[in-house]
C-alpha cells in the first residue's frame, strides 16, 4: 500500500513536467509505466544495427547507492525491446526512490544490458523473440499475462505478432499499450515504443493488422529481486531463434490467461 499511495500522490506532479503528454486512463498499477513513457525522449530514428545496441548498452548504468543511471537519450537510434526495457528499469528505479525496493550490487548488475543473447539473463529474456517479456514477468512473479483486449489497460506491455509465426520466422513488436480508438469507422490500436522509422513515439495501427497479442501487466515490480532464482539461460526463449512455436505452447509456458 505504501508504494501505491506514493504513486497516487505523485502522479499529477510528475505528469506536469512530462516531455510527452498521453491522454490515457490507467489503473494504479500501470501509472509507473505511463510516467516512464512520458519522460522518454522523442524520435531519434529506428535501427537494430550495432550502433543501436552500443547506444543502448551505454544508456543503462549502475548508479549510486544501489540505484540505476538511466539515460535513454543516449540510446538513439533505438528499437522496440530496448525502448520498453528502459520503461521497465524506470519502474525499478521509481521503486528504489520510493524506498520500497532495495537491490544488491549483483542484482543491479543482472539488469545491465551487456550483449546477452536471446534467453540469457534479464536483458536476453526481455529481448528475445516470442513472448520474452511475458515469460520473464511470469518467472519472476512480477505480474500477469493475458490476451484479451477487453481486459487490457493503458500501461500494459504488449507483444504484437504481425503474422501467425511465433519464434524463428516471427515478425513482431514490443510496445506499451495505450488503448484503442475509432478512425473512419475502423478500430485502431494505439501504443508507444521505438517505431519505424522515427524511433521513440506513439503510433496507431488498424487492429486487423495485428494477428495476435500478449499483454503483460506488472503488478509487483519489487519481485525483480527474484533475479537470482532464474537460470542463466531460458532454453524456451533461446530456442525461439531456431524453431517455431504454437500459441497453445506460449499460453502454457507463460501462464497466459
UniProtKB/TrEMBL annotation:
Q: Which UniProt keywords apply?
A: Signal
Q: Which residues are the signal sequence here?
A: 1-22
Q: What is this protein called?
A: Peptidase C39-like domain-containing protein
Source organism per entry reads: Rubritalea profundi
Organism lineage string: Bacteria, Pseudomonadati, Verrucomicrobiota, Verrucomicrobiia, Verrucomicrobiales
Amino acid at each position: 500500500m505504501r508504494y501505491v499511495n506514493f504513486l497516487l500522490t505523485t502522479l499529477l506532479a510528475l505528469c506536469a513536467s512530462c516531455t510527452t503528454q498521453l491522454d490515457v486512463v490507467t489503473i494504479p498499477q500501470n501509472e509507473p509505466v505511463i510516467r516512464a513513457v512520458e519522460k522518454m525522449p522523442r524520435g531519434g530514428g529506428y535501427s537494430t544495427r550495432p550502433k543501436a545496441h552500443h547506444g543502448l548498452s551505454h544508456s543503462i548504468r549502475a548508479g549510486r547507492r544501489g540505484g540505476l543511471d538511466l539515460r535513454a537519450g543516449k540510446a538513439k537510434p533505438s528499437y522496440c525491446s530496448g525502448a520498453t526495457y528502459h520503461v521497465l528499469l524506470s519502474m525499478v528505479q521509481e521503486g528504489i526512490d520510493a524506498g520500497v525496493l532495495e537491490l544488491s550490487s549483483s542484482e543491479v548488475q543482472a539488469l545491465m544490458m551487456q550483449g546477452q543473447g536471446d534467453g540469457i539473463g534479464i536483458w536476453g529474456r526481455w529481448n528475445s523473440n516470442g513472448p520474452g517479456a511475458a515469460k520473464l514477468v511470469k518467472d519472476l512473479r512480477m505480474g500477469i499475462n493475458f490476451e484479451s483486449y477487453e481486459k487490457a489497460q493503458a500501461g500494459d506491455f504488449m507483444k504484437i505478432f504481425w503474422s501467425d509465426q511465433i519464434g524463428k520466422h516471427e515478425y513482431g513488436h514490443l510496445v506499451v499499450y495505450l488503448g484503442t480508438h475509432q478512425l473512419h469507422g475502423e478500430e485502431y490500436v494505439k501504443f508507444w515504443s521505438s517505431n519505424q522509422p522515427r524511433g521513440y513515439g506513439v503510433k496507431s495501427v488498424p487492429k486487423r493488422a495485428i494477428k495476435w497479442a500478449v499483454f503483460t501487466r506488472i503488478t509487483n515490480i519489487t519481485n525483480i529481486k527474484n533475479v537470482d532464482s532464474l537460470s542463466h539461460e531460458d532454453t524456451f526463449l533461446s530456442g525461439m531463434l531456431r524453431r517455431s512455436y504454437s500459441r497453445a505452447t506460449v499460453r502454457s509456458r507463460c501462464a497466459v490467461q
